[in-house]
Amino acid sequence: MKIGILTFYCSDNYGAMLQAFGLKHCVKEIFPETEIIPYTPAYLAGRHWLLPYCPLGSPRESLFLAATSLKQNLRMGRSFFHQKKNMNAFRRKYLVQKRREIHTIRGLQKTAYDIYIVGSDQIWNPDITLGLRREYFGAFPCRCKKHVVAYAASLGGACLAPRYGEDMRALLKSVDSISLREMEAAPYIRSLTEKEISVVSDPVFFLNAGQWEQLETAPKEKNYILLYGTECNESMRRYAERLSEEKALQIVELSLRQTREEAGFTVRTDAGPAEFLGFVHHASYVVTNSFHAAAFCIIFQKPFLVFAHSCRNARLSDLLSACGLKDRLVSHGQTPPDIDRPICWHEAEAKKNLMSERSRCFLRQALAGSNHGSDG
User: Fold this and answer.
1) What does pLDDT average to over the chain?
2) If 0-12 CB within 10 Å is exposed, 13-18 middle and 19+ buried, where does residue 251 land?
């Protein structure tokens, strides 16, 4: 049985690449002939070029965004190229070894897999894919397709705008087994299809700490607080500064874009996924608003706090609740709790393992051609 995975592996994003590896690793344990399809559309990959391709909004808006991103990339200097090198090294070593990239639907139609897995990540978020893309529903003719499985697909929210409803309903007909990443989206998808809908864990939880450690690049920094944000959050930065003073530890700030230098901060903009794993694993404390940083804090059992994102908190809240760690989430305007408050890692690990085993069960049944997943 030959399995092909369609996901956002080409995005220079720690979470996107690590979830892609996690899903590939898990499915290969079931069917060794599993690979990530090297589908690299310009509307995704182009956002990470030196001169970015940003087809968002009007031509004027796209040009402005591209110029702004180019300015940021040039300001990063050598760090931009070191980051690209580290991203590409991980991608080639662990995701799509020496395969010619596919850029179009026509190229996908020439592929030959028995089962196509779409996901995980925000493959059903039209704001990211610039409209609903049929390839991420497996809705394209090809040589020998028998089954399409959606694993941990995300809309980026609880539902889509009304104008997407009928297209979504039609595209879901192409998917044989459906699972979602966020529980909040399940009612919406159930309103569009009679198929069973499961809610599953992020693929990074398919590997344990020891397995992820084999992929990491350990940082040269020692005794540090890791600060990593997916958006600017002044409350989070100020908290990290106070924690640094209290613990007499330096702050290492991990960023995909050039950020302002501040006294007491070491800013690293050159990290790829392997370096990201190392920074989380070897941190004394982690302060973040990133889902995947929180996920790896749980995997590596690091003391951490997660500051609420301005708009995307559902999956963070779901994850922390599922692992019995809801007290690690700092809501807007809330005084941060004591980061040294003891965590029962044995209990959190047991809950995490139960969550990932239910998700494995969905995959096994879906790959066997069953429509019966397990709600999680």
Assistant:
1) 91
2) buried
